[in-house]
C-alpha cells in the first residue's frame, strides 16, 4: 500500500513526529516481547515465519517512513518503492495470521476456508491497487526536500488501507466467536448465550482465552476505525489531510501490534503442557459431541495460530 503525504506547513512536522513515535512504539514492543519471541522460534512453523515477516516488514516500513520525512534521501524513488513493498508485506502478512487462525478453528471445512481465502485476496488486491496509484513528490527535487508520495485518491486510500482489512477482521471475529460459542459447557439459553459471547463464561480456559484475545483486538481496531472515519469526514485541507494520513498509519501499526500479540499469546498458550493436557481433550473446534475430536486436536497443534 502507499503512504500518505501530509499537508504543507506545520502538518509536515507533526506528521514526522507521529511517524517517529509509531516507530518507537514498534521497537519498544519488539524489545518488550523478546523473551516470548525467542520461545516462538523454538516452536518453528510456517505461521511463525509469517509472524516474523509481519513484524519485520512493519518495522522497516515505518523506519523508512520516518527517514523519508525527517532527513535527506538521495534516491527518493527507490526509497518509496521499498517503503511501499514493506507496507504491502505488512498488511498481507498481518491478515494472513488471522487467516491461519480461522482456518484452524474451521479445520476441514472447505467452504469456510475458500471464503476466507477469497476475502484475504480482496484485502491484498486493494493494497496493490493503492500502491500502483502512488507517486513521488520529489524524484528530481533538491536533496533537502522530504521524500513522500503525492496525494492519491483519499477514498481509495481509506477503503483499501483501513476499511477492507477491518471488514475482514470483523468477519473473522464473528466466525471465531460463533465456533467457540459451540464449545460452551452449558445448556444454551439467551442469558447463557450472552454470557458466553460477551465474557467467555462456561467455556474451557483455552477457548475463553481465544475469545478474549479476539475481543480485545477487535475493540482496539473498531476504535481506530472510527477515528479514521471521523478524520476522513473532517473538512480540513484538501487531498490527503494530516488527520486522515496519520490516523490510517496509526491504525495499520496498532493492527499489526495487536495481531502479533494475539498470535504470541495463543501460540505460547497452546504450547503449554498444562493447556495441552487439560484443555485440548475437552475442546473440539466443531460441533460438540462429534467423533472428530482427536483429529482436530492434532490440527490445533499444527494450525491454531493467532
Automatic annotation (TrEMBL):
Keyword Transmembrane among UniProt keywords: yes
Region (Disordered), start-end ranges: 279-306
Lineage: superkingdom: Eukaryota
Basic and acidic residues: bias regions: 292-306
Keywords of this entry: Membrane, Transmembrane, Transmembrane helix
Stretches that traverse the bilayer: 15-34, 46-68, 80-100, 112-133, 153-181, 193-210, 216-243
Record's protein name: Uncharacterized protein
Species the sequence originates in: Agrocybe pediades
Amino acid at each position: 500500500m502507499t503512504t500518505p503525504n501530509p499537508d504543507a506547513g506545520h502538518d509536515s512536522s507533526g506528521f514526522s513526529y507521529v511517524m517517529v513515535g509509531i516507530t518507537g512504539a514498534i521497537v519498544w514492543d519488539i524489545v518488550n516481547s523478546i523473551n516470548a519471541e525467542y520461545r516462538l522460534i523454538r516452536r518453528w512453523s510456517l505461521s511463525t515465519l509469517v509472524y516474523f515477516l509481519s513484524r519485520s516488514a512493519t518495522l522497516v516500513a515505518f523506519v523508512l517512513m520516518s527517514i523519508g520525512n525527517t532527513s535527506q534521501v538521495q534516491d527518493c524513488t527507490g526509497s518509496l518503492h521499498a517503503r511501499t513493498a514493506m507496507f504491502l508485506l505488512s498488511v498481507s502478512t498481518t491478515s494472513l495470521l488471522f487467516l491461519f487462525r480461522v482456518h484452524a478453528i474451521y479445520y476441514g471445512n472447505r467452504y469456510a476456508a475458500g471464503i476466507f481465502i477469497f476475502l484475504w485476496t480482496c484485502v491484498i488486491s486493494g493494497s496493490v491497487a493503492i500502491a500502483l496509484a502512488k507517486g513521488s513528490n520529489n524524484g528530481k527535487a533538491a536533496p533537502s526536500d522530504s521524500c513522500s508520495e503525492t496525494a492519491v485518491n483519499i477514498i481509495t486510500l481509506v477503503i483499501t488501507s483501513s476499511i477492507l482489512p477491518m471488514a475482514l477482521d470483523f468477519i473473522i471475529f464473528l466466525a471465531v466467536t460463533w465456533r467457540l460459542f459451540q464449545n460452551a459447557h452449558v445448556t444454551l439459553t439467551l442469558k447463557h448465550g450472552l454470557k458466553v459471547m460477551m465474557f467467555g463464561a462456561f467455556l474451557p480456559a483455552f477457548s475463553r482465552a481465544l475469545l478474549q484475545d479476539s475481543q480485545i483486538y477487535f475493540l482496539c481496531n473498531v476504535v481506530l476505525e472510527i477515528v479514521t472515519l471521523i478524520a476522513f469526514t473532517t473538512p480540513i485541507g484538501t487531498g490527503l489531510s494530516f488527520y486522515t494520513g496519520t490516523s490510517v498509519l496509526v491504525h495499520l501499526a496498532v493492527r499489526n501490534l495487536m495481531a502479533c500479540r494475539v498470535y504470541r499469546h495463543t501460540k505460547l498458550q497452546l504450547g503449554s503442557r498444562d493447556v495441552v493436557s487439560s484443555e485440548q481433550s475437552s475442546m473440539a473446534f466443531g460441533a460438540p459431541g462429534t467423533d472428530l475430536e482427536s483429529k482436530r486436536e492434532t490440527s490445533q497443534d499444527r494450525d491454531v495460530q493467532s
